[in-house]
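Extended Data, panel c. Modelled sequence:
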Amino acid sequence: MTYTFAPALATGDTFSGSLVRVPGENVGTYAINKGTLALNGNYLINYIPANLIISSATITVTANNAVMCQSDGFPNFSVIYSGFKLGDTENALSTKASVNTNADRNIPGTYTLIPANAVSGNYRFVYVNGSLLINALPNANVNSSKGTELSKGETAVLTATGGTTYRWSAANGILSGQNTAVLTVRPSQTTTYTVEVTGTGGCTATRSITIKVAEDYKLIANNILTPNGDGVNDTWIVQNIDMYPNNEVRIFDRNGRELYNKKGYDNAWAGTVRGSDLAEGTYYYVITYGPDKLVQKGFITIIRNR
């Protein structure tokens, strides 16, 4: 604290001591007293008192921007303070600022975040709005290349759309594509496939499709066997037989003699009997699938010189 005086002091004379004021740092008026201010005995000090006035300081309160997904609960909105004095923090406020918005959480768009309601005897407040971005959920959809009804053993391609990344839940019959938009399936029973679709801002939507599987015995037995090691028709193939594990395959020659018998046939027969190659010619098969089930009959022609 400083002071002025009149008239001028005699040469070599000076004041000693200092003024003092009523202690306090909050907004208010504080008296400044003479304190220990003094001169030598040649002077009589006539002190005129004054006051120290502490006015409120200005704090800027800024709402932090926020992002959320459509239909989610609002995040915890927050603010940043600037302008505190003498080491004060937000804990020095009687009431901290709150943030309000007129946003509809179910409607995508950009909304205003409005800070307000801070209270303090020592500060006045300037408020700066923030923004709330509500990202839309992805418009997810799932389609099947073969509709929603398949024969047992049939393969379908399921395609999800509407996002940037895709994740399919584990389910029966998945062949490939579990972390892509395109899932290839070969279900052995009626199965529901569910995909999580991720879009803008990491927002997700879930869609499902149910594929009904008919046990209609659509099995196709190849009638040509050319076991020459070229990778084509080297074994006798019955398409989709793996979906009917209770099958039994029997192979006969033209005289009705049984040459081969296999329960749970696995498409591995290469035209042999007890390790020896059968001669070229026509043979006959009977496939059964259990009591009161389909009985499938036909012929196989073995050709070795191709």
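Residues 57-135 form a domain with the Immunoglobulin-like fold (CATH 2.60.40.10). This feature is highlighted in the accompanying rendering.
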